Amino acid sequence: QSLPSISILGDSYSTFQGYLQPDTNAVWYVEKPDLKKTDVTSVHQTWWHILAKEAGFRLCVNNSFSGATISYTGYKDKDGRPQDYTDRSFITRASNLGCPDIIFVFGGTNDSWAGAPIGDYKYSDWTRRDLFSFRPALACLFETLTDHYPHVKIYFLLNDGLKSEINESVKTICAHYGIGCVELAHIDKLSGHPSVKGMKQISDQVRKYLSGGF
After folding, report:
1. N or C: which end of the chain has fewer CB within 10 A?
2. pLDDT, tens digit, for every residue of 75-91?
3. Cα-to-chain-centroid distance, residue 116
4. Quick one: which of 69, 168, 165 has its CA closest to 109?
5. pLDDT tens for residues 132-176?
């Protein structure tokens, strides 16, 4: 019997050079990093690799993209105008996760940091304009995932240190769709990104959640 397969839909926190599909996705973690920015130097130190090894999973697809937002609203350009991140948004990438048994969605961090509009709770009939706001975009993402991957377990990893509006929105929308929300806490970071210690903390907290979540 083969091991359960996992796919990851993420941002920089889940990247590692040479392990992304597609391989054109922007990467934060690389084999030879600037050690002033991160102490993560091996794919074996990433949260998902640790989780797969320790919990008995195999990796299906890691579609993570550094800097990506769930909504279509990205970081501001040099003139202070929010950029259109439709091309890299979680919604756009959601249908490219292979054929997994489990999907981990690890996002919302860039929406929080970029100051994306929160918007209203809206669970259907989204317009393109709606998807530039976080709440309708997250609902649309979950709708897309549950449509494309019936009978696949989906879990959302909620970073610590985000805006309260983001946290509230994630927990509310996860509850609406019956998606497990892993609320991470006290994650060790360098340059705003998980360190080696932080990666292990993420894996441990996800495993703890799953031990009562299956």
Report:
1. N
2. 999 999 999 999 999 99
3. 16
4. 69
5. 999 999 999 999 999 999 999 999 999 999 999 999 999 999 999
The CA distance from 190 to 37, in Å, is 6
Which positions ≥6 away from 102 have C-beta within 8 Å? 4, 5, 6, 7, 57, 152, 153, 154, 155
Q: Which of 54, 64, 151 is nearest to 101 (CA)?
A: 151
- Give me the amino acid identity at 20: L
pTM here is: 0.96
**CA angle centred on 107, ends 104 and 111, rounded to 5°:** 165
| Closest by CA position to 63, among listed 112, 5, 104, 111 | 104
Q: DSSP letters of 52-78?
A: HHHHT-EEEEEEE-TT--SSSEEEE-T
**Backbone torsion region of residue 110, taken as left when φ is above 0, otherwise alpha when ψ lies between -120 and 50, otherwise beta:** alpha
Compute the residue count for the chain: 214
Long-range contacts of residues 17-23, Cβ cutoff 8 Å, at least 24 apart: 18/43, 19/43, 19/59, 19/62, 20/62, 20/63, 20/64, 20/65, 21/61, 21/62, 21/63, 21/96, 21/98, 22/63, 22/96
